[in-house]
């Protein structure tokens, strides 16, 4: 294989002095997407990528598309006898929002009908408490800006919107459907330049009035990177407001009695403030306040108290912390003589649901599940009852919705995804290995029957407390069916083992995450699953940072890398996208100690000349407003300059999509390109 000729990229003599450390940044000019030099370089990179020999692309495109023809179905949200849910038919690009009642099903929102180009996505929706009106949020072109609308459920008429600047906004309806609390950013003219994505506030909005007249409820004078949560109890009496600094694993929390103070001026009482814990509240139909918290319980617990005495000194354990399982969800079923509490758990990332007496918390049974997989949220009827709904998926089972009846103790299939697909014969095994410091880490390994080393993709994330749990993946199955192995490492920094597991991989502990990935790779090689020449790593977003660090720390260990929408310049990451909200996860280069953490692994700054790096494909999205593509642009230029070997460094730069949701066809094309690249450079023969 001959060395690839790369597009020229000038190297500027830019060196910053940070806390006495010289920090070179030769490709800073690539931070400006409007610079003609940047555009010329990106065009040349696109030409180079499209000329790459990826023989398996057509095969993977066809097979991934077939597997995604399973479609999808969402768990229902009930309002009386109305239920709201999403479904995607086999040939649809996006899920469609439906409402069902005595008159049957009907479409409330079809993103493709709104925009035949496929660039519009449904971000979220929230019916009012009576099910007569529904607030929904949509984005266009991947920008995730979430314009908010209100629709009349009966007529389908849009009666409100768009209200802009509603990214990541909850909607909390007051009874009657005439008003709701929500979160909106300040207008750009009211904030410093460069801070337009921050400065959120909680408002009260009355349907039919201008959002300019909304009443400011909360957030004035607080941290600019705060995210806010807001909810209102079913009876409309209790308001709760939470505040988190960026993505910090902790929040402040307040409640207000709306029977004793007006919705426009709620008298907020502190539940917790300046406490290093995450806590959420649920106002029960029985008058009790249910507290879901990891305070003094990194794996989570449920406590009870009265809404009149919400402070933690009044909490009583109802479901104490489990020594092994992480508490993920709960639902109250009170339509029987003896009410019960359903509690969702992940035990080493495998889902389970236990049944408890509501009054005492005593465990009295479990909900039968279809297999060893992942459980989605548990939903009950807001007004009470004996039924619950939840989603289930595993490595070979597309996500379906199941129904649990507490009167009979039976679980039954409620709705399967609408498309029938043939999945390959494959099994998933959870293995345990030891990381560099001796910590036990788990890994899910999916393969077809057979033995001997095979081309293998090792995937990881390891951040923000996000757990990697079993689930149906067209990409995984297409790779495994072609003869490869797909491994998912449940690294520190994630949430597989609770909040302490997260903290063991954040801030100054971030190197643990990279060590966990290296150890996973070494385990796969030592046990004969694969070889170094057959081993690829893949990750996106924070997982892109993971594989970026891995390829610079251990270029000898990996044959190929897919690095998608990554963070890679960890010295300047706070200056772009939503970076300033993540310094609670990574640290800030402005703080000397935290700069030292970032400097120790920042992938862009650890590219070295005369090193043979793995074959690397960067995939980025021009409309990504979370992680700016500049990270991958600068890193690709640095690696292309430094590469001493013959393996290619390529950049795939996609337009009109962002960090999150996208049309199915765009997902198919991306996955096909990624798998074809990895197949070529790990020796997987396709077709």
Automatic annotation (TrEMBL):
Annotated EC: 3.4.21.26
InterPro entries, per database record: AB_hydrolase_fold (IPR029058), Pept_S9_AS (IPR002471), Pept_S9A_N (IPR023302), Peptidase_S9_cat (IPR001375), Peptidase_S9A (IPR002470), Prolyl_oligopep/macrocyclase (IPR051167)
Compositional bias annotation for Basic and acidic residues: 9-19
Source taxon at top rank: Bacteria
Peptidase S9A N-terminal domain ranges (all copies): 7-416
UniProtKB keywords: Hydrolase, Protease, Serine protease
Reactions catalysed, as given in the entry: Hydrolysis of Pro-|-Xaa >> Ala-|-Xaa in oligopeptides
Keyword Electron transport: no
PROSITE patterns attached to this UniProt entry: PRO_ENDOPEP_SER
Keyword Transferase: no
Domain Peptidase S9 prolyl oligopeptidase catalytic stretches: 472-683
Pfam families documented for this protein: Peptidase_S9, Peptidase_S9_N
Region feature (Disordered): 1-36
SUPFAM superfamilies assigned to the protein according to its UniProt record, in alphabetical order: alpha/beta-Hydrolases, Peptidase/esterase 'gauge' domain
Similarity comment text for this entry: Belongs to the peptidase S9A family.
Cross-referenced PANTHER family: PROLYL ENDOPEPTIDASE (PTHR42881)
Name used for this protein in its record: prolyl oligopeptidase
């Amino acid at each position: 294989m001959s060395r690839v000729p790369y597009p020229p990229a000038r190297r500027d003599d830019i060196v910053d002095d940070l806390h006495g450390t010289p920090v070179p940044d030769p490709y800073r000019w690539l931070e400006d997407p409007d610079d003609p030099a940047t555009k010329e370089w990106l065009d040349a990179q696109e030409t180079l990528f499209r000329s790459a020999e990826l023989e398996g692309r057509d095969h993977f495109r066809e097979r991934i598309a077939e597997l995604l023809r399973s479609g999808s179905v969402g768990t229902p949200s009930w309002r009386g006898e109305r239920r709201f849910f999403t479904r995607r038919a086999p040939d649809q690009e996006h899920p469609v929002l439906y409402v069902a009642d005595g008159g049957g099903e009907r479409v409330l929102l079809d993103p493709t009908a709104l925009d035949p180009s496929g660039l519009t996505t449904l971000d979220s929706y929230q019916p009012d408490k009576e099910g007569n009106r529904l607030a929904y949020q949509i984005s266009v072109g991947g920008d995730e800006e979430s314009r908010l609308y209100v629709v009349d459920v009966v007529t389908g008429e849009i009666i409100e919107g768009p209200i802009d600047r509603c990214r990541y906004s909850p909607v909390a309806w007051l009874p009657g459907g005439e008003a709701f609390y929500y979160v909106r950013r300040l207008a750009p003219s009211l904030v410093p330049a460069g801070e337009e994505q921050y400065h959120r506030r909680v408002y009260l909005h009355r349907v039919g009035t201008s959002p300019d007249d909304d009443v400011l409820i909360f957030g004035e004078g607080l941290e600019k990177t705060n995210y806010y949560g807001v909810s209102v109890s079913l009876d409309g009496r209790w308001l709760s407001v939470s505040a988190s600094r960026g993505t910090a694993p902790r929040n402040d929390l307040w409640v207000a009695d709306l029977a004793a103070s007006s919705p426009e001026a709620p008298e907020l009482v502190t539940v917790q403030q300046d406490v290093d814990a995450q806590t959420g509240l649920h106002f029960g139909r029985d008058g009790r306040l249910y507290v879901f918290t990891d305070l003094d319980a990194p794996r989570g617990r449920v406590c009870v108290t009265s809404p009149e005495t919400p402070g933690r000194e009044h909490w009583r354990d109802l479901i104490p912390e489990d020594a092994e399982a992480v508490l993920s969800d709960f639902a109250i079923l009170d339509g029987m003589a003896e009410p019960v509490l359903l509690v969702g758990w992940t035990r080493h990332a495998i889902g389970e649901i236990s049944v408890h007496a509501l009054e005492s918390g005593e465990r009295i049974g479990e909900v039968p599940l279809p297999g060893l997989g992942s459980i989605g949220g548990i939903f009950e009827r807001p007004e009470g009852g004996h039924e619950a709904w939840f989603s289930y998926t595993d490595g070979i089972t597309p996500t379906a919705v199941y129904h649990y009846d507490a009167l009979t103790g039976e679980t039954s299939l409620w709705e399967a995804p609408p498309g029938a697909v043939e999945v390959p014969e494959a099994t998933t095994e959870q293995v345990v290995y030891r990381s560099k410091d001796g910590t036990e880490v788990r890994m899910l390994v999916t393969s077809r029957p057979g033995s001997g080393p095979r081309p293998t993709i090792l995937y990881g994330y390891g951040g923000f407390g996000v757990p990697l749990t079993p689930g149906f993946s067209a990409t995984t199955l297409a790779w495994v069916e072609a003869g490869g192995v797909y491994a998912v490492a449940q690294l520190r920094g994630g949430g597989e083992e609770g909040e302490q597991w997260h903290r063991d991989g954040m801030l100054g502990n971030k190197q643990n995450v990279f060590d966990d990935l290296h150890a996973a790779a070494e385990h796969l090689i030592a046990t004969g699953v694969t070889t170094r020449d057959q081993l690829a790593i893949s990750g996106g977003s924070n997982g892109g940072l993971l594989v970026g660090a891995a390829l610079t720390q251990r270029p000898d260990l990996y044959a190929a890398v897919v690095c998608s929408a990554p963070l890679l310049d960890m010295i300047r990451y706070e200056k772009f996208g939503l970076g300033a909200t993540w310094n609670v996860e990574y640290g800030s280069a402005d703080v000397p100690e935290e700069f030292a953490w970032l400097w120790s692994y920042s992938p862009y700054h650890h590219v070295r000349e005369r090193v043979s790096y793995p074959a690397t494909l960067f995939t980025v999205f021009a409309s990504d407003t979370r992680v700016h593509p500049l990270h991958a642009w600068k890193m690709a230029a640095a690696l292309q300059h430094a590469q001493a070997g013959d393996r290619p460094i390529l950049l795939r730069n996609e337009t009109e999509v962002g960090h999150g949701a996208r049309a199915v066809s765009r997902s198919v094309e991306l996955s096909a390109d990624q798998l074809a690249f990895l197949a070529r450079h790990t020796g997987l023969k396709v077709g």
